[in-house]
Amino acid sequence: MALSGLDIYKKLPKTNCGECGFPTCLAFGMRLAAGQAQLDSCPYVSDEVKAELSEASAPPIRLVTIGKGDKAFKVGEEQVLFRHEKTFYNPCGLAVLIEDISSDDEVSEKLKQAKESQFERVSQILRADLIAVKNSSNDAGKFAEAVKKVKDGIDFPIILISNNPDAIKAGLEILKEDKPLIYAANKDNFEAMAGLAKEYNVPLAVKGSESLEELAQLVEKITALGVKDIVLDSGTRALNETLRDLVYIRRAALKQKFRPLGYPTITFPCEEADDDYLEAAFAGIYIMKYGGIVVLSSLEPWKVLPLAVLRQNIYTDPQQPMQVDEKIYPINNPDENSPVLITTNFSLTYFIVSAEIEASRVPTWLCIMNVEGLSVLTAWAAGKFVPEKIAPFVKKCGIEEKVKHRKILIPGYIAQISGELQDELADWEVMVGTREAADLPAFLKKWSA
Hints:
By secondary structure, this protein is of the alpha/beta class. The chain has 3 domains: 5-57, Orthogonal Bundle (3-methyladenine DNA Glycosylase II, Chain A, domain 3); 64-314, Alpha-Beta Barrel (TIM Barrel), CATH 3.20.20.20; 327-448, Rossmann fold. It contains 16 helices and 17 strands. The chain has helices spanning 5-11, 25-33, 47-57, 104-116, 140-153, 165-174, 190-200, 212-224, 239-254, 276-288, 301-314, 347-360, 376-381, 387-396, 418-424, 440-448, and strands at residues 64-66, 73-75, 93-99, 118-121, 124-127, 130-134, 158-161, 181-185, 204-207, 230-233, 266-267, 293-296, 327-331, 340-344, 364-369, 407-410, 429-432. The strands form 5 sheets. The chain has an 8-stranded parallel sheet with strand order 10-9-8-7-6-3-12-11. Strands 13-15-14 form a 3-stranded mixed sheet, with helices on both faces. The chain is globular. It starts with a helix and ends with a helix. The relative contact order is 0.08.
């Protein structure tokens, strides 16, 4: 049974040192009980107390890692129902399904999609994360061949899908060192599947069939066999039922601290929808509502890009604005005579301004200054986009080596700093640009005429 905040407080050192990030040990204990802090944050807790409080301090949803190396996929360890309460930590995974009855050309095409469906947005690479190999043939040998093709063809974490423990074992023999997720243990095969998960030290997906109560009971049996890394599939294959179960699982883990459902989930919109467009719509719903892994039938760019952008938006910390890298962005192939603009690294500002510059077709240097992701006016009000900080950035960013003129355009909304900035940048002519980005094309064309 989970301990209360007061119960935890009684076992803490009560130094109120603040080194954990909280003002008092009581506050730390309360956050620990709520799953909003980690016991390791306290440097003075004894090993004995750590062992005693491990259950209380464990994340309400267990962190599960699939695969190894740079592309290892982590899912779980979420602490809130809604992003605005705090943040979501580990983005859900997009997987593509490959069946062992597929032709070599079909397998190659899906692996190619997985490799090529990558997009850069706000200095982040958006892509798919996993490959799911399904034993549709019910032949362990054929399944093993398909697993080997995938392993040799791409360096992605793999999900092995089969109800047959022999087929799963054949796949595991090929992926001994790769830590795949094996799917799925059910009420008929859970002992054999749990044995394989322990033997090969891999995470195990558990699939229900009748109700969440039955799924929870099955999880308890499997954890009693020594398997700790688990992924849940409620077993439903209808949108309304799957969505209902995803919400119930998340609420049970976070609100009731119900450990048997305190694990990440896997969903299969590829098995629920009749066409690709409906499948993409279902996938979007599961990304928004607690799907830990979303398995798709294919990874065409039109399908992956909107889903990956949706995922990026949801799993961005709402307290940390999305921002782009501080650097000089060349737009429309600028040269030494091209205009120089400066603005902040708030992602929306960058996208709007850069889009208008591109539309103008005027070669331009766009200098992006790091102000911790704030917009122009907010950064100015916070003292981050002010003359005494802009001037050093202009001098060190390297723009002086790229142009032979000394004219720089600042956003119209901060026209009031132009005089002071001119004093700071004595070698430059500070010009005031437009207030609205939409007016930039006409302004730039007039400047370059």
